[in-house]
């Protein structure tokens, strides 16, 4: 963190104001070009360039770059789409892979120097992804079972006693058809938000300890070491959350494609 | 950094600008990757599967072909061996036959030669006898003429005398030969 010492001291304890980013060009409409939106476009640019370049001239015996691109796709295709959804899930593999790459890269931005914030720490981006997942699994389910059959399938678990219908139906309906995109996006958002907050606590805390002087200064290395440890931990969490998001989307799609359960 | 003071807006309550950015950016990413990259990967997977399975199938075909050829060669070899044995037997039989033929022929030939020799011997003996008979006759006549000292004018009597004499000689020799046996 750069800046005058006074500002450093003001930075601790961190709060939600640490998540608000200034517009780069004030003349543009608000929020369209900030570190957040820039990093989203950067992620899209990096992914498009990487995949197009590495798959520009695919060979039967892959080159190293092609192999990396294929491994990522193969991981999601075989590890998620095929294993969770089944053979007919292969057709969702391209979307799942795109989703996985996008979430993973934007998450990792939280520990990339000079960006150091994940766009997913703003609810808007997880919300878009969550709503997309919601649309996909609902459309797939309605196409397969028809609107009424699909709603019925998701509202009434088979084998429920009729006496319990008044309780079960609203719960199942809300949790299966309304809350899923919210839980998806909030899970991702909260993890990224909390991760950023944890790193801020240790880094700004270390700075604040130095500022405090005296015996407090001696404790500051501990804070910085913790910041490094937490950075590694965050890296793990970032990839895990990308995986979880895609995995849950696949599970929902599988539920929509399944016969009566 | 590029931070602005403010409340939590945009963090827990989505701001529409960021929603728009998210939709556009992610939409673009989906479009490009799902249209230009991942279908080609599936294609490549399929090609690879084809290549591997095709290779296996080709190898199997080659193996089968090699086995069939080997079998065919073995059969041909066995056939050739049988045939060679047959030829050898035939040749042996033929050789024996030829040998017999030659022997028979040689025997016939030798018999014929012997017979011819015998015939010619008999003929020359006969000739000799005839010649000798004439000569002996004339010599005896000469001798007798000289001894008698007179010319025997009577041809008929002279010929009769000679013939009679020779017949006597013949008879005497035949009797000798019969006695010798």
UniProtKB/TrEMBL annotation, chain A:
CDD domains: ATP-synt_Fo_a_6. Belongs to the ATPase A chain family. It is found in: Cell membrane; Membrane. It holds the Pfam family ATP-synt_A. It comes from Stackebrandtia albiflava. Gene3D superfamilies: ATP synthase, F0 complex, subunit A (1.20.120.220). GO terms for cellular component: plasma membrane; proton-transporting ATP synthase complex. This is ATP synthase subunit a. It is a multi-pass membrane protein. The chain crosses the membrane at residues 32-55, 92-115, 121-141, 162-182, 188-210, 222-253. InterPro entries: ATP_synth_F0_asu, ATP_synth_F0_asu_AS, ATP_synth_F0_asu_bact/mt, F0_ATP_A_sf. SUPFAM superfamilies: F1F0 ATP synthase subunit A. The keyword ATP-binding does not apply. GO terms for molecular function: proton-transporting ATP synthase activity, rotational mechanism. Keywords: ATP synthesis, Cell membrane, CF(0), Hydrogen ion transport, Ion transport, Membrane, Transmembrane, Transmembrane helix, Transport. Key component of the proton channel; it plays a direct role in the translocation of protons across the membrane. Its main location: membrane.
From TrEMBL, chain B:
Residues 52-90 form a coiled coil. It holds the Pfam family ATP-synt_B. It is found in: Cell membrane. It is a single-pass membrane protein. GO terms for molecular function: proton-transporting ATP synthase activity, rotational mechanism; proton-transporting ATPase activity, rotational mechanism. Belongs to the ATPase B chain family. F-type ATPases have 2 components, F(1) - the catalytic core - and F(0) - the membrane proton channel. F(1) has five subunits: alpha(3), beta(3), gamma(1), delta(1), epsilon(1). F(0) has three main subunits: a(1), b(2) and c(10-14). The alpha and beta chains form an alternating ring which encloses part of the gamma chain. F(1) is attached to F(0) by a central stalk formed by the gamma and epsilon chains, while a peripheral stalk is formed by the delta and b chains. HAMAP family: ATP_synth_b_bprime. This is ATP synthase subunit b.
């Amino acid at each position: 963190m750069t800046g005058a010492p006074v500002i450093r001291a003001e930075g601790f304890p961190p709060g939600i104001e640490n998540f608000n980013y200034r517009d780069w060009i004030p003349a543009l409409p608000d929020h369209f070009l900030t570190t957040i939106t820039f990093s989203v476009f950067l992620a899209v640019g990096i992914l498009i360039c990487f995949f197009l370049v590495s798959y520009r001239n695919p060979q039967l015996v892959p080159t190293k770059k092609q192999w990396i691109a294929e491994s990522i796709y193969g991981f999601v295709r075989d590890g998620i789409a095929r294993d969770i959804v089944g053979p007919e899930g292969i057709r969702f593999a391209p979307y799942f892979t795109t989703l996985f790459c996008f979430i993973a890269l934007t998450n990792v931005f939280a520990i990339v120097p000079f960006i150091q914030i994940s766009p997913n720490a703003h609810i808007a981006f997880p919300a878009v992804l969550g709503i997309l997942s919601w649309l996909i699994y609902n459309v797939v389910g309605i196409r397969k079972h028809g609107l009424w059959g699909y709603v019925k399938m998701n509202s009434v678990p088979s084998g429920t006693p009729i006496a319990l219908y008044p309780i079960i139906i609203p719960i199942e309906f809300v949790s299966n058809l309304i809350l899923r995109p919210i839980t998806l996006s909030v899970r991702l958002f909260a993890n990224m938000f909390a991760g950023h907050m944890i790193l801020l606590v240790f880094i700004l805390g270390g700075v604040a300890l130095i500022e405090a002087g005296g015996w407090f200064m001696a404790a500051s290395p501990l804070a910085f070491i913790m910041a490094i440890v937490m950075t590694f931990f965050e890296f793990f969490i970032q990839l895990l959350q990308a995986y979880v998001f895609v995995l849950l989307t696949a599970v929902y799609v599988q539920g929509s494609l399944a016969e009566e359960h | 950094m590029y931070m602005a003071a403010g409340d939590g807006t945009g963090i827990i309550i989505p701001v529409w600008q960021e929603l728009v950015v998210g939709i556009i950016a992610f939409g673009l990413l989906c479009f490009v990757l799902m249209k230009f990259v991942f279908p080609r990967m599936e294609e490549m997977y399929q090609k690879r599967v084809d290549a591997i399975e095709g290779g296996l199938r080709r190898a199997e075909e080659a193996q089968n072909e090699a086995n069939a050829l080997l079998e065919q060669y073995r059969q041909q070899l066995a056939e050739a061996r049988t045939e060679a044995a047959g030829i050898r037997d035939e040749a042996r039989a033929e050789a024996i036959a030829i040998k017999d033929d030659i022997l028979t022929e040689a025997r016939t030939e030798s018999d014929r030669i012997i017979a011819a020799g015998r015939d010619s011997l008999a003929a020359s003996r006969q000739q000799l006898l005839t010649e000798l008979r004439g000569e002996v006759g004339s010599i005896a006549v000469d001798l007798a003429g000289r001894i008698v000292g007179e010319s025997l004018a009577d041809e008929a009597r002279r010929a009769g005398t000679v013939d009679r004499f020779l017949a006597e000689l013949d008879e005497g020799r035949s009797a000798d030969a019969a006695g010798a046996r």
